[in-house]
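Because discrete structure vocabularies remain unfamiliar, we first show an illustrative case, written as a sequence plus integers encoding its fold.
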Amino acid sequence: MPPPEDGDLVVLPPDPVDAGSQRCRLGPSVMEELGLKLGSPLLILLPGGSCLCTAWPRSDLADGYLQFQTTCAAANLVNLSGPSTPQSETPHEGFGVNLTELRLQRAKLKPLTCPRLKRLHVKVLVHSSETQSAQFIQELAKELLTGLYVHEKHLVSVAGAGTQVRFIEVETVNSGSHRAGLVTTETRLDLGSVLTVQKYRQALRRTPSVHLGGVDEVLASLKEMLTVPLHYPGSLKHLGLPCPRGALLVGPPGVGKTQLVRNVVQRVGAALVTLNGPVVVGSRPGESEENLRRAFAQARRAALDGPCVVFIDEIDALCPRRSVSGSALENRIVAQLLTLMDGIDSEESFIIIAATNQPDTLDPALRRPGRFDREVVVGVPTLQQRFRILQCVSRGLPLSSTVDLQTLAEMTTGYVGADLSALCREAALQAILHNAQDGDKEPDGLVGAEHFVRALRLVPPSCLRSSVGVADFQPVRWEQIGGLEDVKLKLKQSIEWPMKFPEALVRMGVRGPRGVLLYGPPGCAKTTLVKAAASASHCSFLALSGAQLYSPYVGDSERTLSQLFRQARACSPSIVFLDEIDSMVGSRGDGGCRSGVQAQVLSVLLNELDGVGYKTTERRAPTKTFQTEGEEKETVREKQMELQERCNKDVMIVAATNRPDTLDSALLRPGRLDHIIYVPPPDPQARLAILQLHTEKIPLNSDVNLMDLAIQTNLFSGADLENLCKEAALLALNEDGMNVSTVQQKHFLKALQRVNPSLTAHQLLQYQHLFSTRLNCS
């Protein structure tokens, strides 16, 4: 083959004479150009990795060709499944890529300065897991490496020596700033671990570790718990401490429990044996217990080659609480698992990790020290954790400059990691569809903020799906509510400000209100005001009415109310809206509680308002995030997010009623429903604003005088005014036909004759009396 004319070097099969060495055959002009002497170390940069060789001239002195041995190369280039001896007849058979007739630029050849190494840390790969002393393997590895140049993160092939050792992986080289060097008899070799080639090959084939955002502290806790018993069992034995046997991960679905286990197992370099309920449970008697024993036997065999982790996913389905009414199969499975966990020897290097989202359904015998020693709670992500997760899941998306991940993290209250991943995927899909509608054949535009807004409507938080109190409402802006400026300001101060600016309240030494009560005549936009406050606060919104609360079953209403607050605490900051609260609870003093159920519901509500009943499994993950190396200092916005997360953890209770006199006085005291706000009927100016708002989309004739209509609509509520506008438009259609273009003043006047106000003067006097009494008491 003639040499290339462009100056590149053609890679040829290695010379059989150089088998078992690190020699690289080059032309004399190339060696002179690179300043190489005989036996000088040379690093060859190849596709996907590098190879460390020593320079030697070619026997034919031909330039333009390159021959080298694959004794020391990057791990991802080595074909561990094929023959690994240097005497292999197939050229470059030890490599995972085909290097035959490969062309390399001369710039890919890097001369290295390799000093004599003082110390290096290695991992030894053996052919089989035959029991041999660590000292013998360490001395053998030192003898095989003496006289060779080695490089960090490279595999050194020593299979030609005919020993049990096949490869030696160089993990670290302690020689200043150098990453390569010469191993001599004076070099100190530290042995890290001994693995079989098969296990090392399986570890390389695993899915690369996925960076998990927002779970740094949980990840560090799991890694610490696994590293000590798996890698340092001798230290625990020397101190006389029992080796931890297991850990239980508790958290709602989608927070990343399974991915967390896989990630930490890969980081500590352990083997993973997974158990699932459908795989374990068998059809014939005794088959389930046999499957469990077989899985533990597999873990014991894997533990002979190194650390091993047995992961039991959804353990609540496999080991439920044993009871008299439980099935015999479930009881036998629980008993078999307990026996196997108790039978683990202290010298066996494997640990059991289980995951569940229903810890209360587990058998209590599993949750004692000696079995599942530690319970790690992975809660719903906090504000800062959602920001970290969004940074991770959107790393591969071409984001537009309009996308603010911090603002998006504030808008995704209650979203878990799986929800945020689905949100980014849906936003990317919306961007593709949007660009495709514009006529692009291959849409490749950026993902903008408007795409995330559309995705937020399609991807709700999974913790709020099919749960109590989920309210699906369109966001309401303050501008969409006409009038009531004083009430809006009070609601902003009571709800929006504590949610969005909690640091200001902390700075002033003031705690935000626990609850707000809106009372006033029907149809005066109490519910709409609460929706506007929830929309402006960017928090979770849960609503409950009397029809959803009460049930014919004993204790079901109290459980429903407790579940609502538990769901709200998991998604905090959140707003719980109790509409028509007078129908849920009454007053105990004057017999207002019409049944014993109402008194019990009132008792549960008071306890929840005071914070009683908070369970340990509802703990949120810590707000402290770890700062990685090279990461810039926190910005002012991130510091504000951290302060907001630390200050704003409560649940805001907002109730509405048109009969405040029927409520119990214990419910209205400060610390429960702190702010009591009267929502009056609209005055003439407010009625004008409401009419202008509801006639924005109605084509009005020039003779329509909204101010005159506002004066004539005394005792009309906001709902009445909306009904008036609809009735006028329908009258225009009935009188002038379907081709009518505008609504005239006469249509509004006729509608006034048909639509009567829902409020009366007597009702207003009663509300004004309550309002004045409240002012005098305050």
